[in-house]
């Protein structure tokens, strides 16, 4: 049974979410996602369409033994029986019956044109298919929910018939009839009027299933709840066919935080950020940084004026406390920063700048100047931290003095190109002249630099370049344009990003590389020698 039957949080990531372009889930992926969903505390997990999609059939088989759900109940999704076929003789209905799922969610036509043109049957036969299939599964001891496909378009075309489908399903024993905005084109006020009418006309328990084609899926779902539905469907990260389904985490956060409803087990809303990102890892679809509540940018502040108000009270520029969904407020330092942005970012990085107005102003001016030359600090916290340390201490943190570096790339007879670099520097009083080889110039410089300083600073062996991004800044200039390089370095416990800018891609990379190593040594509390 679900946590509370009064209100259903119904997740369809594994079925409708998997209908998203570019998303392909293995059975193991589906099992991993189901575990996350159960941990989050949704009431129902729609696992797929057994009998139609072989992977989904296998998922239900394996789920029976491999998953021990604490909060959720599995729902198997599938269509009503075929026209002219009794439900008891329909093979696909049999697969739903045999899936072992406690709930079967049937999809049924409720739009007359779909019945006549897509299903190619009569309106009465469709009603028979709905009633027969619901009764058959109920007799098998399963709970039945019914998704009324294209309900809102169907209601517009033929209200009496759309209502009749809801009535017939409820009378046959469907616990919930979910009204589907399948094409996602309905707007909130109209949707709310329709939901109210269906509730009054049929008395059935209603649910809502929205798609985001008009950008209104979450708003429509909330509007439906406000009109009286007690079952809401959606997907994590809004995955789904075309523009996606309603984002379930945004719906739940809105209802819990703004309507005072208790939908997840106590405290679990704060797991939203972690679970949205963990599921994105499994789907291998980069999470949208601008997703409401759980996006990395959802509570990131860039404008100086915003920061100055946030310094007084974060609520002045945030609709809710990010901690309530497990997210964090972040200050972005850029050309749009003012003194308050610098002060708050400094605090985030461990510097108390509150009493040094002049220093903060100087840092803001330097950031604006550097950004006008192509640097970006909002993505390169580590370079900003070095800049700040330089202003606070009066000198840039430095662990080695570079005399010179050079790199050549050679194309060999076998067609392979390899790079070789030489780095000359002084570290801990010793002059080092080191060569490094690599499959590219940055790789060769990385090898030479770490070899040159590893004797003085062994921590450098933990550093690894995990990401490298290049961007041409003034695209009109072609190959002599200004280049920006962002390098992400990791040490097994965390990662940091540094920036370099130059007309030469290797020069820009070298600057980012040196900053990356310098910040890493600072992070490891190495003492400059
Ligand atoms: C709105 C939604 O997202 S609903 C979920 C949709 N999901 C999917 O389609 C994913 C899984 N689908 C599949 O694996 C396949 O499409 C299947 C197995 C369901 C059907 O495959 P096929 O039999 O090859 O036919 P096809 O894919 O062309 O589907 C159309 C058939 O389904 C029938 N059909 C469509 N809707 C329904 C319904 N609600 N109830 C019963 N039959 C239906 C059509 O009448 C047509 O039948 P016909 O071939 O006998 O004329
Ligand atoms: C059932 C379903 O996924 C829809 O109508 O959109």
TrEMBL record:
Catalytic activity line of the entry: pyruvate + acetyl-CoA + H2O = (3R)-citramalate + CoA + H(+)
NCBIfam families: citramal_synth
Domain Pyruvate carboxyltransferase, chain residue ranges per copy: 7-270
Record bears the keyword Amino-acid biosynthesis: yes
Organism lineage: Bacteria, Bacillati, Actinomycetota, Actinomycetes, Propionibacteriales
Top-rank EC class of the record's enzyme: transferase
CDD domains: DRE_TIM_LeuA3 (cd07941)
Organism: Kribbella karoonensis
UniProt keyword terms in alphabetical order: Amino-acid biosynthesis, Branched-chain amino acid biosynthesis, Isoleucine biosynthesis, Transferase
Domain of life: Bacteria
Protein name: Citramalate synthase
Record PROSITE patterns: AIPM_HOMOCIT_SYNTH_1, AIPM_HOMOCIT_SYNTH_2, PYR_CT
Pathway as given in its UniProt record: Amino-acid biosynthesis; L-isoleucine biosynthesis; 2-oxobutanoate from pyruvate: step 1/3
Family: Belongs to the alpha-IPM synthase/homocitrate synthase family.
This enzyme's EC code(s): 2.3.3.21
Gene3D superfamilies for this protein: 1.10.238.260, 3.30.160.270, Aldolase class I
